[in-house]
Every structure is written in C-alpha cells, then in structure tokens.
Amino acid sequence: MRKLGRSHHLCLLRAIVLVSAVALGSKAVFPAPREEVLLGDVVPAHDPVLIREGDRYYVYSTGQRERRPLVARTSRDLRHWAALPSPLPDLPDWARAAVPGAREMWAPDITQVGNRYRLYYSVSRFGTQHSAIGLATATTLDPAAPGYGWRDEGLVIASREGDPYNAIDPAFVRDRGGGEWLSFGSFWGGIQLVRLDPQSGKPAAGATPQMIARRDMGDKTNAIEAPFIIDHGGWYWLIVSFDFCCRGTSSSYHLRIGRARSIEGPYLDRSGRAMREGGGTVLLRADAAGRDRFRGPGHAGVMRDRDGHHYLVHHAYDAAAGGVATLRIARLQWDRAGWPVVEKTAS
Asked: How far apart are CA 255 and CA 241, in angstroms?
C-alpha cells in the first residue's frame, strides 16, 4: 500500500469530518490554524479584530491606501473572506480637529453591549502621541440588514505630547462583576486600563487610566502596544505586542501574555515577572531563522465562538507576497497549566 504524505492525511481527516458532519445534518466549519492560508479578501490587514453576528463573522482593521477610514470584511467559515464597505464613510469632524492631518482610523475594536455594537477606533499621526480614541455604535453589523448604520458618539480619550500614555489601540473588556473597562496604549507610558461608564461607553466620572504593562528597553522606546484582555479559567489574560511592526518581513513584532486574578492586575508571566516591569511570556513569534512564511505576527484580538473555542486574530507579513500585512486566524488551546497555546496544524 502506498504511504500517505502529511497533506494526504490532512485531506483524509477533513473528508472524514465532513462526512460525519453531513451524516449528523450539521454544517462543517473548519478552524483556520496558524499555517493555513486564508482566502479571498485578506490584504491589507493591519490590527484586525474579530466578531460574530448570526451566521457571519466580521473583521475590522486599520484603514490603508484606498480603503479608508477602516477596512471591513466578512466570512461564514473563518477562512473565505469578502470585502465590505467601511463602516464609517469618513473621519468625523471632531477627529479631524483633534488630530489634524489624519486620514485613516487605526486599530479598531468591536464588541456588543446590550442591543448595540460599539466600534472603538484610533486616530493618530504615526510615531507621535497626538492621538485620540473615538466611538461609533450600531444595531447590526450587516450592511444589507434593515436599520444598518453607524452613529458617531464622539471622543473617548485623547493624548498629546508629554502625556503619560498614547491614546490608541483600544480594546473593550467586561469584568466578572459586570464592570466595563477599556485597555489601550502604545509605546509611551505602556498599556493603560480605564473604567468606563456603561451608559456612554466612555471613561467613568473621576476615572483615570492606570498602567498595567510597560517595557523599558533601555533606549526608552518602550516597544509595547495593542492590548487585549480575555477572561478564562478564573484568570484575566492580557495579550500585548512587543517590538516593531510595519517593516514587512523585517518586522520583529510578536505576541506576549500574562495573567491576573483581578482585571486591574498585577499581570504576571509564567516566570512570575510582572508585566508592569517588562514581563510577558511569548504567545506567538516567527522563528528566528526566517523559515516561517508569515513574519512579525502581532496586534491580536480574541473571539470566543458559540462552541466555546477561542480564535486568535492578528496580522503578519507574508514572505511569499512581498511582505504584505495579511489577515491571520488561529484557534487557541489551553495547556495543562491553563496557559493558552496557539494551535498549529500542517497545511
């Protein structure tokens, strides 16, 4: 009998799963693991975030080139993606006034609160603290649905040169007591967390941002950004990006993680080092030898699907396509010690 190669084994396994699903009368949906190439509209994709509404998944990411002010796309199976129009037609007037010269929206975050979706987004000038986080809301994500449309809710928080933080990279999180929070931050001052007013989705009266993670590399770059907090197994997990994006296949971007019992921290890595003191366990990084096709993985979000599985969405730079920033999705597993591991499946 001829031996089957790894790819033949995978195809056979998928065929078995598909037949089983059909026999059970269900629709087979395969996860999109780390090495598997997603299809359709997957570039450009900087700073993606993932959500599900009904039988569709939606990804929003940083505006780039002709796709402004945000990039939007949709899928039914997490693998085949189609382009959507930007949820917002242009930067609102308040954002243009707050950050003169800005053209795109950066690093959005999407979440459902009650019967409305909140779309947090950043407006900034690259390499500066002249930044602002804004908010828009809608009742549905489907552009074809009745009542579709986004409402501008205005400024959430801003920063200027010399402030103790940089107001970009927002990510909403709810604690176990129902409290609402926004994490954010990039380089200056590290990662911040601020309590929100649940009615407005903006900082609560008297709330001030508190630093929960930072990284001082000695040259004062503090190369840490893009926080995302999830609640799993009795812990809050803080995912951040270390090092540098936006350099194609030369990007050193990678993901690190720590955990805390309280949403306010302290977040510790596997070794017990505090993320406030530069700690962070590697969650996902391209190999140093340059063998991985997708380089500089970073700026992650996590979606917990209806089946309980956690999907990690991020971007990485495709060495087979000139280093373009590309949408990546992988499933998270949890090891015996309760720490997340990015699922790796051969393509």
From this structure: 5
* CB neighbours of residue 27 within 10 Å: 10
**pTM of the full structure:** 0.88
Beta strand 39-40 with 49-53 is unpaired
Q: How far apart are CA 181 and CA 197, in angstroms?
A: 8
**First vs last C-alpha separation in the chain:** 24
Give the three-state DSSP class for 15: helix
d(CA 86, CA 143): 10
How are beta strands 39-40 and 80-84 bridged, if at all? parallel
Spatial distance between the Cα atoms of 338 and 341, rounded to a whole number of angstroms: 9
Q: What is the rounded CA–CA span in Å between residue 61 and residue 328?
A: 12
SS3 content of the chain, % helix, strand, coil (to 5): 10, 45, 45
Residue numbers annotated as active site:
47, 225
pLDDT digits (tens, 9 = 90+) for 76-132: 999 999 999 999 999 999 999 999 988 889 999 999 999 999 999 999 988 889 999
